[in-house]
Protein 1
Amino acid sequence: MKFSIDRRYLQDKLSTAARAVSPFSPLPALSGILIDVREDRIVFTGSDSNVAIQTAITPGEMNRLQIESTGSVCVESKYILDIVRKLDCDTVGMELMDYTLVRLTTENGTFNINSSSADEYPFIDFSRPQGHFVLSPDEFRQIVSSTAFACSDKDSRPVLSGVNFRIAGNELHCSGTDTYRLARKTLQLNQDQTFDITISARTLNEVMKSLSDSDSIDIFADRRKIQFVFGKTIIQSRLLDGTFPPVDRIIPTEFVSRLTVDTQELFRAIDRTNFMKNDNVHLIKLDCSEQAVRIKVRAAEIGNSDERLKNASWTGEPMSVTLNGSYVLDALKALKGEQTEFAFSGQLKPIRIMDTKDASTLMVVVPVRSFD
Amino acid sequence: MKFSIDRRYLQDKLSTAARAVSPFSPLPALSGILIDVREDRIVFTGSDSNVAIQTAITPGEMNRLQIESTGSVCVESKYILDIVRKLDCDTVGMELMDYTLVRLTTENGTFNINSSSADEYPFIDFSRPQGHFVLSPDEFRQIVSSTAFACSDKDSRPVLSGVNFRIAGNELHCSGTDTYRLARKTLQLNQDQTFDITISARTLNEVMKSLSDSDSIDIFADRRKIQFVFGKTIIQSRLLDGTFPPVDRIIPTEFVSRLTVDTQELFRAIDRTNFMKNDNVHLIKLDCSEQAVRIKVRAAEIGNSDERLKNASWTGEPMSVTLNGSYVLDALKALKGEQTEFAFSGQLKPIRIMDTKDASTLMVVVPVRSFD
């Protein structure tokens, strides 16, 4: 195995593969990146046994890749990335000296890194699942930023730690929930499909970090695994087992009152009372009437507050509702619009939160019973 | 106690006082900021019992401070800072409602924070020590950035965790050492003085963060404490007990050989081998002759490297010397010059490291015995 390449391209490919590498990997070999030099390309693979990333580079004018001989090796991810990032040269040579010694060569120096044989790297099946749909990077980012935050971070029900992608006809519904709140993004696809899969939020965030703007994303999935393919990179992950809860049922559809707010004003008003927590939970009370909308917070040991929203309007009977402040902040952050509508079905019923101008994203938050 | 003030000025004063507040304070009252409203000014005090900061504000056109009634209270530092930072208003009112309830008032809201009585705040003696000298903010920054990093971070000899300021005549010598290396900055003062005090590196870094560009710093000290006074702010700290070691003796003055390097080139060459550590120590070997200067690193389990410096010159007999790489990196970072000179007195003797164009800063690093 021997090749030379533009340093920045090598760094880019190693960084992409390294995204899947975890320092807490169960298998020691997985702390490395598998570098497989073939006749016409170099393939880089990184994995933490749940998520695997494979990316390739072929000789081109810009990357100045020259392959002298084939072969493969597994190099410790943090060592190789650190040195390739810090080298001062334009072109770097890489060579396997014996079974496990990798030599990097620059104009002025040589760097030998003890590595391990490619045989020790576990086999990862990158065969392509059958189901297929396409998203633009922008659509994908919208989905992740408006749903992944609502997933559960507890291990008790693994399926809730992911976003459910359900396609029926040409409609894609993406839902994240931890049972106290729901975040949903709906998109139209170009072709009809049937899918019902749940993808770990961690995988989705990894894919988002690896995306470049120019690519469309081909998504291949079956019941076991999913592949995101863009450019010369494949990110593959197991799907989460278990049945995703039937979240459609909790989305309220009939309303008795509505609150419209300036998104930024409400966000900042809630955020500045964030230190008034009871048992580490930030509860806010919305006191709504047609005359005024007030936010009241009371934390026994810390203090209390009462603030009137300047730009808010309420239609319906007066109502007081207590909510988890961080859920509302998360929802407002994800909606991003100028104005947000909270639609109420009645005391203690789930509340639907939406941008007033964009019906494709909706949040549902369940109120908290309050005793004051 | 009642006043109103421009929000940004209040935030600025609270942040300054809060710099001395530590969440790990031995006294619960010290997690607060003492706000003392007098007829003509408000005085803010924060302390962690070692370092204390006092800053004041008097009514002015810009800060719109209006004092309605005097009084004092101790408010939890993190709560008051958090809310004042996040308020949307220009002017904020603050009022003590009874002994311990502090009310902030804005156009649309009120925020009550449970606080504690000013009586619970410990007495801090801000009386002025007799000795006095003056530094410009730039001189002060130079001293801290070129000496504090070399102080010891171990508790075994407290005096080594500070920078020694020794004035004899009109020369100020500032020295930091952990016994393996020394960093020294020398400055000329305007007047003659005699001082020999050691100031904790933590205090110096705090003062550096609080400085604004326009002020000169008046430094008052006796054998027990030091005060840095600039604008309306006093930062006061105990001095470190113990005799600072006689570091002058280890600064070599006669040399048999000299190495001149491009500072950045050497820094980057050492930095990129940083992952090759033996028992978590990064040892580098400089192989010097008139023909070539090479850096060699060998870490049994990780690998080895050999790189030739392009822009380096050596005068003297060929020599190999092993150094702690992080000490050299620290020294080069502090020297900042384009070219750096390493002056050698002989094998295993302390090495003097200086910017080729600035004799006011010098570093001494002791070589490591190496067995290969």
Note: The longest strand of chain B covers residues 181-200.
Protein 2
Amino acid sequence: MIRLVDSSLRDGMHSVRHSFSPEQVALVAAGLDRAGVDAIEVSHGDGVGGSSIQYGKAAFSDEALIEAAASVVQRAQIAALLLPGIGTLTRLQAAQRLGASVARVATHCTEADIAEQHIGWAAEHGMRAIGFLMMSHMIEPAELAVQARLMESYGASVVYIVDSAGAMVPRTAAERVRALRDGLDGATEVGFHAHNNLGCGVGNALAAADAGATWLDGSLRGLGAGAGNAQLEVLAAALERSGHATGVELFPLMDVAEDVVASLMERPQIIDRTALSLGYAGVYSSFLLHAERAAAKFGVEPRAVLMELGRRRIVGGQEDMIIDAAAQLAADSHPAPTGSSGSA
Amino acid sequence: MIRLVDSSLRDGMHSVRHSFSPEQVALVAAGLDRAGVDAIEVSHGDGVGGSSIQYGKAAFSDEALIEAAASVVQRAQIAALLLPGIGTLTRLQAAQRLGASVARVATHCTEADIAEQHIGWAAEHGMRAIGFLMMSHMIEPAELAVQARLMESYGASVVYIVDSAGAMVPRTAAERVRALRDGLDGATEVGFHAHNNLGCGVGNALAAADAGATWLDGSLRGLGAGAGNAQLEVLAAALERSGHATGVELFPLMDVAEDVVASLMERPQIIDRTALSLGYAGVYSSFLLHAERAAAKFGVEPRAVLMELGRRRIVGGQEDMIIDAAAQLAADSHPAPTGSSGSA
């Protein structure tokens, strides 16, 4: 049995500039609940407390949105995402008071240790604690399993492989799920959160399920950062056709996607050149603007800069290396004449 | 090595009402050729000779479009699709004279025998003859292999599994490729043509490649009937990330998708409720209008009618059974009182 988690009201926030209102959240959440989705994630795109100049100002508080969702659901659990360093524990505590019963605590895939306090608190205070390993394509499956075991040791009952850059294909997704499935306790479940930059949102989620993942994320109409997520109503149908039960009723799920979410979208969730380039390079979407500026300065292709950042495995906080990467590419394509130190 | 075939200028014709002009075809074909795509399929959406009241009038003749494409390519082969019963052999002969060197002859998956004359002619007259088994999800892998062997016996050097309804998932796609791979001569290649109704366009093509398919179709921006095809520029990137070489240069391919094809599209190629319903039911998109009318007449859900058509495995030519399916659904949901023959 696969548990489906909807992220339209959290990851989807990225594609509507964090503008969903409590009324809109209630409409979507009620539809998801009627269809039998297990959990509904609600907050700013970067988790509770994410509203800021740096990450984008939200139109409404996380608390108002979580309360709106919690007030309309009958069966579904409400989930709150927390990125330690962006949000604080007090925001998670507020989320719980307003009706969130699932805590998803997210870190970069090599930094599980910064989630110890937050996962621990959630597990000790009656929330389902879920660990979220972002940019999971960047490290090998065995290393990822080590990080997952850390989260498990803090109290996580589910650990997610998060393909933040949409850089995985079914083979790499399945390898990571198997590594976690082998490395974790039998009672700890494995989840998968896809992005669609390489067109594999649904395909990766199916491969994850085949490999033993039992929690899968998606969003209605694929609403999400970049190329978007696995399209939830499509994933539900594809899982059924692949022999995986979800407990979700497909027609009501299609209806909330088409009758509610489609009209709230600012643009269709397609795979354009930018989204594809980011997924192919396997880098953070927040690097894009930096890469474009550095490329212009040094007269090189923006995509070539993204590829170089992917090769160097640059992560958030290392934005200063983007200039260096562009300068290097320019030097490689226009080498100074051999034996000369003069102008070329 | 995977050979990529672009179908933007044939299957993509469905989503632009068969309106591409020779100038537009030349622009797209030149871009595909620069990127190193192996073959470019050009014609009305239903193949050469498809322009008609029944299948949709094309703005320009197949011959003018094929000639336009052939005049600009340096490396790529030009492919013409022929559906026996819609187009005739004379159209294929004309296509060859104008520069098409690949003949793709398509039949319903149980009717390979009607392709004998056309595949045979193409193979004998210096064209690469490819067999195209449409709606391949409708029969079991072993049965499909029998049909593929027929096409091979007529002279096809490649036989395609065509997921016309977008009803397959990676598992069912791979099963069919393996059945053909096992059933055909080693020298005969297997191809896969995806549709994206279940979000598996790229995922199915990757699964097909892993299972031994060496010819894969796609289209730029996913342009195609219904939910569209595997998005070619995305598929090329995903194949590379999956360890399959294609010989295609990715950046030029992305550029023709974004700089040329995107501006020619009338709507983005998304998976809406209708496309998903058709893929989930596994029925021809041409049944949609009939199903909607029958559903209205009998007061049942159009989607329920589509599902019933899928269960009954109705194929083209059996449209009269759509009314019967809707009537049956209505009777099942409002049964007459037991023991009474009076009005209810």
Note: Chain B touches chain A through 46 residues (CB under 8 Å).
Protein 3
Amino acid sequence: MKKLINDPRAVVEESVQGFGLAYPNLVTVSTDPTFITRKDAPVGGKVGLVSGGGSGHEPLHAGFVGLGMLDAAVPGAVFTSPTPDQILPATLAANSGAGVVHIVKNYTGDVLNFETAAELAEAEGVSVRTVLVNDDVAVEDSLYTAGRRGVGGTVLVEKIAGAAAERGDDLDAVAAVGERVNANVRTMGVALSACTVPHAGTPSFDLAEDEIEIGIGIHGEPGRHRIPMENADGITDRLLEPVLADLGITSGDKVLLFVNGMGGTPLSELYIVYRRAAQVLADRGATVDRSLVGNYITALEMQGCSISVLRLDDELTGLWDAPVHTAALRWGV
Amino acid sequence: MKKLINDPRAVVEESVQGFGLAYPNLVTVSTDPTFITRKDAPVGGKVGLVSGGGSGHEPLHAGFVGLGMLDAAVPGAVFTSPTPDQILPATLAANSGAGVVHIVKNYTGDVLNFETAAELAEAEGVSVRTVLVNDDVAVEDSLYTAGRRGVGGTVLVEKIAGAAAERGDDLDAVAAVGERVNANVRTMGVALSACTVPHAGTPSFDLAEDEIEIGIGIHGEPGRHRIPMENADGITDRLLEPVLADLGITSGDKVLLFVNGMGGTPLSELYIVYRRAAQVLADRGATVDRSLVGNYITALEMQGCSISVLRLDDELTGLWDAPVHTAALRWGV
């Protein structure tokens, strides 16, 4: 295992410290327990947004803390859910009195721990709504999940619900926007290589030199099947087809096309995938109105990508375009 | 070789096509020959900025085309200089009558081909100035270079000279700002793994499982020496020390600290490197006033990073903060 780390057990702590040092005007890093808040949290009158999950998916979630997106992020150990004793103070810090929306990727540990924290927060008088993200069409249940996993769509839920909170929507309205994004986004991913969890020290699974895993999860958990290596257009078709079918994309639909890198794949390759996906959507008569290409929800140094398609309407498009100022997404500010 | 590509010989063409499809409102992709221009180029009255070089370093350079940065980018084949017949039309397209600055990384092929293109452009009545970037302190001469190589500092030259052009500086003044950034920035990098050029099909060099290359170039060309794997703090010290010594950083200096990923290293690890580098600078009494962390000038899927330090003054800081709207850097717009 060759990684730019010191003590494998200190990876999250030191990485979060470095993140805080790099963005001192944007975020505050709290330790013991660890969570990251927007510098100006809580923002008076605004619904708070909190997300979190296992580390190793950076920039998700801390990289999305800031104006127009999250008020707080809660990183667990690598690929391990954060605990309620982290999520609770993050929730309290995000609450200005207007309540807090938890955005939770559908993994059993995350769901349970956010649920516990929500109950504790309610007991302290904070209203909490939960948006469960489950956009992965690859598998119905999986290693860590009952039901579909939450993957790339999480980034879009956080951006768009964040914009709804920023414009002043109330608690139920922000949660409803988040639910609507989740209902209109689907994702599927592929791994060309495994990744290595630092405290484990060995790759989380084995892939032969000529083999890829279609429908991979963001923790390297199994997807639909392993197949021999194919070219980018073939792989893109295998990912996009189930996404479009499940979403029922038809001629005239407007969409946001999101090609996400898993961490170890060059941007140049993501553009080759984007090219094919855009061509397929155009052939279907759909209009790609917005795009996002890059490493936004990763699996450490895994090579591979995921493709997300979000069906847009005028409101979602407007909320996507609204100003955002975070470490990983920024425009209009 | 597992890559998300189709025909290895079509990698640059298809990637650039995908890039154009992802950012239709930002850039225009010209083919035969291939170059990328800002959608609204040439911008009346503004000095044009053109850069380019071998592909495989994405988002550099096409990802920096747009308001406040480059007017055109010229991608060569992977790790291969673009040709004068590409650079010339890009230069003409960037020229609004105020002349064009070429920002050239110091590699022999790039220098020669940009020089030829500059002469051809001058013959067509376009004034051209060249800013040569040579910020790499690792080696004096190298495989592809007489003198120091141009690496991470290039991103900072393009951003800051781009802002000078955008505020209306004339041709000599924009070039002078670019020279001043180059004079005040130094960089050194490390590789934990090699990368594979698609049309070659095998790794560009060999590194043992317990070995890293200090002072690596962005094409995998040799650096200073190979050493056994170390922890992140140790590696950071090895990169930062020569940078600070060469730049003569002393107590009271204000700097921009740029930790750049080589393409295959997770963001979480870059933050661990940033943490140490920020601590060392603080111990020296220097103030890290601005930061940049991420994959901005890469070597395909190479694992590793580079550290750049730019000595700031009020003018350079103001130009850094000025609005920018490109695929890879965006704020204020």
Note: The first strand of chain A starts at residue 27 and ends at 30.
Protein 4
Amino acid sequence: MSRSNLDLVNECDGFPYYQVDPDLFAASISTYYELRVQNRDYALGYLLPSVAEVFRGIPHWHIDDDERILTLTEGTDAASRSAAVQTTFLALRTTGHFKVLDKWRDELYPVYGRQKELLFNVERSASPLLGVVTYGVHLTAYVVKDGEMKIWIPRRARTKQTYGGMLDNAVAGGIASGESAFECLVRECGEEASLPEDLVRSRVKTAGCVTYFYIRDERAGGETRLLQPECQYVYDLELTEDVIPKPGDEEVEEFCLWTVDEVKAAMAKGEFKPNCAIVMLDFFIRHGVLTAESEKDYIEIVARVHRRFEFPTL
Amino acid sequence: MSRSNLDLVNECDGFPYYQVDPDLFAASISTYYELRVQNRDYALGYLLPSVAEVFRGIPHWHIDDDERILTLTEGTDAASRSAAVQTTFLALRTTGHFKVLDKWRDELYPVYGRQKELLFNVERSASPLLGVVTYGVHLTAYVVKDGEMKIWIPRRARTKQTYGGMLDNAVAGGIASGESAFECLVRECGEEASLPEDLVRSRVKTAGCVTYFYIRDERAGGETRLLQPECQYVYDLELTEDVIPKPGDEEVEEFCLWTVDEVKAAMAKGEFKPNCAIVMLDFFIRHGVLTAESEKDYIEIVARVHRRFEFPTL
């Protein structure tokens, strides 16, 4: 069945909004636990009760069932909190409590407080368990010839455990703690699309960010229903015809140069990884492919792909 | 005192967010009345109690003080509802109840329901009394020479009653009921900047929309604290050096061609009309002038200028 662009947004930004449906929001919220750190009286993320339950009795953590709050009680600075978090997840990995930890990445993601201070780092594969905001970069590479735009679209390897065989953005990757968005982008452009560093540095355009509140399904691998609020910095790169992106690793099967209509058709068939479809929608809006006249849900789509989170962000 | 870009956003998007501060939101909300129409159980806007009070006893309206809801009870279709609304505001204009009605425009703004159906039209000057979403177009015109961008910035006539002497976007205007965003833009480009229609139609780029929830102050004229949720469709127009925008009416004093740094400096000094500063921020984000590395409040700014409203939009 054909998906509308708003369907694609709903698939990626699935967490309810208070201002649109207070009852649904309240019903959802009441099933989760808030994640906090000691001496900060605000939420950093939401956890499933089944996840929060596992922290009961683990040193460094306190669970308040009445208020539904899980608090990291250990540590007074980023280093000591990070150490406690790492100890916890290394142990939980060993005990096999969570399937998502089977894909341990040995890569740290940052979690920030309201003053934009780093509160702690957490192993990447563990971040959806805590429901904290994570950060990444997505690049759309395109060619304009005789006034017609074509877009480079990679297909993910069918053997990939997460979203195997689905369509992606030209380059995408997570930003590790301490890395800047732009340097992450330059690195990923080399690794994922074999794009020369000097070309990227001189030609790429920073174009904003998309933010959405994703609820993980089976395609993400591991536990489902985990909450994943994400911020993806978006970049555009107009390439000349002689530059051909090439997969730099096993993660991408092939790059295809598609017309806008071909991309739209694949989106409507649900062939894109959900957050990559959102990045394409943002690109289409910024480049006038989608307009107020051509897209019936224009205003809602623009607002939804730039969600304001209840959690602090960088 | 110098304003940060987030200060500029706060000035324009001043209504609280539930998800960030539920208590502040609840305190604000509890002071307003919801606007509804018969047989639609959702809000179309918020009214000040002092405004809602005036509707007490006026035919076609029902005020529920317990639930704090003002309902338009007359009419079963857009035509009959619009007639009732018009009758009401013509009378209130005559009685001199509201200062904002002194600037009667004889121009109708549309109010939509959740199915994007037109519920009624309302005289433009009356729309902030009802607190309904209004729609407009804003154009940023710029020139790129030797790799440096310069932006055409008009200064509003100092004699103008609203935001007199402040800086504006190259072209801006409200979309009347029945008019498309793009046709409105083309018309305003001619009226406000004397830009040739064929140039606009062939060169202008549709680039999204900004949405924000403005609380009117004395600079807007008339009653203060009125609520004004707005959607501005944004457009970019790159001009060659030989095209000079010229004021088409008395509303603009002059157009200046400024460097990005000059524009930023004027923004920091608070010289821009609040919603025009927001449009400039969105332009700067889309064009890579503001980046994740250079703007400390990047993510919040991007989300805030694309607010999702609790009211239906087109």
Note: Chain A has a mean pLDDT of 96.
